[in-house]
Amino acid sequence: MIELKNVTRRFGDAVAVDRINLTVETGEVCVLVGSSGCGKSTTLRMINQLLPHSEGQILVDGNDVTAMNPEQLRLNMGYVIQGTGLFPHWTVARNIAMVPQLLKWPRERIDERVHELLTLLDLDQATHANKYPQQLSGGQAQRVGVARALAANPNILLMDEPFGALDAITRENLQLEMLRIQSQLRKTTVFVTHDIDEALRLATRIAVMDQGRIIQHDTPENILRRPASVFVENLVGKQDRGLKLMSLHTVRDLMEAHPQPREPEPGADGLKEDDSLRVALSIMLWQNWRQVPVFNADGQETGTITRERIIQEGA
Amino acid sequence: MRVWLPPVLLTVLLCALSAGMPTLEPLFEWVQPDKQNVVYERESFLFLLQNHLMLVVISALVGTVAAVAGGIFATRPAGRDFLPLVSQIASIGQTFPPVAVLALAVPVLGFGEAPILVALILYGLLPILRNTLAGLEGVDATVRQAALGMGMSPFQVLLQVELPLAGRVILAGIRTSVTINIATAAIGSTIGARTLGDPVIAGLVNGNTAYVLQGAILIGMLALTVDSLFEAAERVWDRRFLPQTAG
């Protein structure tokens, strides 16, 4: 758990972060969102003390961060930044092994862990482990960046616009990857982004920041339904709020489930349980379907969903 | 290890030339037909080479330690304020002509090796210092931020990240500095240091072109040899720390 109490950060006379209070519960993903210069990155860097705070108190699992040795504090926090910050003179494997090496794990345990992480992030051991960061694509490099952050199994993950420099397709892939990994590992995560869609997709709770203050701290659904101010309303986009709300839920939430999963009829078209309602509606409109079967990950038919239901209850 | 072949060959050639200079007497008689002695004999060339090299190596070692330490200090948070001052000191060291340093150092340190060492150290500082600053400043800020953020101590960041990444540039600075100093060391002969400049000075004083040639050839050869040594070292460094960027 991370608690910020009345935290202020000044640069000279300028106040970058102004008396903010924020609690990030264990296992939740807290996304700090706002325009550039709103203090979100500053807030993140105060948590691992790359920037000391001017006033207030920052507690990590109940301990004041100023009382801890900064290296010790950071070794227990994975840190992922935009542009990866991978070490260009080290191989992928050595980059990932960085923190375990600092913690003086035995050789075999490090090798095993590196292998585990390459697998977790869908990187092939044989082709990638001995490459250098310059030889990777942007998406692969950022996967390595995430693997490096997770290497020593830290309790906390700090991510500073990690996917900001990637193209839209790679970014979406990594967001999905991140959701998958998070559902397995449940790390307490603070994630900084200026992309509201990314925030809505990944967050357990979103903290909207403006001019060094937190304007609203709430679940994605409540941020969309009940924006606390005009600023938040503009940020989430007033017009397509309905569609954005739909993207928060999956087909599974609204489908008519069969009592038993059944084998699909050969060649049957349909939706997947994990598709968002927004995607589902879009497909149904395009294909002009009124009712379609829903399949689970194993390809079995688990239920049906109707267009009417999505339109009525989706947002 | 094919990279080491050129420096080894040049070293062999240099030593052979120093030891076997008298056998080239007929050649120098042709250059300087009017003199009795055409091969410099007051000291053996091998001894002069050894002494010359020693002056350069000592000054390079001291200069490197001082310049790299200075460069590191000036790029740490605590030393940032001194950054302009440090670069200025180094620049001033370079604008001072070596002869002027000798003229000032002789009354204090006397004749011999000491004043030329001072001059060489001062003279060799700037290229190393400049490159140390450029190399350290050139390390990608995100890399340094990631290293710190992942829990490395500032000292570990310096040792494991900054110096390996800046080392190639620093090495190039040392190479420049040493090459310049091999030539500059010869001036030491004017104030009683024994260097390969001796035959050159003697030749100039006596109007003996053959002497001048012998000194100049050996100084040139020494510079080439040392330079090829650095060339090889840089290649080895590249292989170790800067693998090809080709995908």
Structure description:
The complex is a heterodimer of chains A (315) and B (247). Chain A contains 15 helices and 14 strands. By secondary structure, chain A is of the alpha/beta class. Chain A folds into 2 domains: 2-238, Rossmann fold (3-Layer(aba) Sandwich); 248-314, CBS domain Like, CATH 3.90.1280. In chain A, the strands form 3 sheets. Chain A has a 6-stranded mixed sheet with strand order 6-7-8-3-9-10, sandwiched between helices. A 4-stranded antiparallel sheet of chain A has the order 2-1-4-5, with helices on one face. In chain A, strands 11-14-13-12 form a 4-stranded mixed sheet. In chain B, helix 3 runs antiparallel to helix 8, helix 6 crosses helix 8 and helix 8 (154-185) packs antiparallel against helix 10 (209-241). Chain B has a single domain, classed as Orthogonal Bundle (MetI-like fold), CATH 1.10.3720.10. Helices cover 76% and strands 0% of the residues of chain B. The longest helix of chain B is centred in the last third of the chain and has 33 residues, at 209-241. The radius of gyration of chain B is 21 Å and the shape is elongated. In chain B, 38% of the residues are buried. Chain B has helices spanning 5-19, 25-31, 45-75, 83-95, 98-109, 113-137, 141-149, 154-185, 197-206, 209-241. With 247 residues, chain B is an all-alpha fold. Classes of the chains: A alpha/beta (315), B mainly alpha (247). Chain A binds chain B through residues 45, 48, 50, 71-77, 79, 81-89, 98-99, 102, 132, 134-135, 148-149, 158, and chain B through 140, 142-143, 145-153, 156, 161, 164-165, 241-243, 245-247. Chain A: Belongs to the ABC transporter superfamily. Chain A: One of its GO terms (molecular function) is ATP hydrolysis activity.
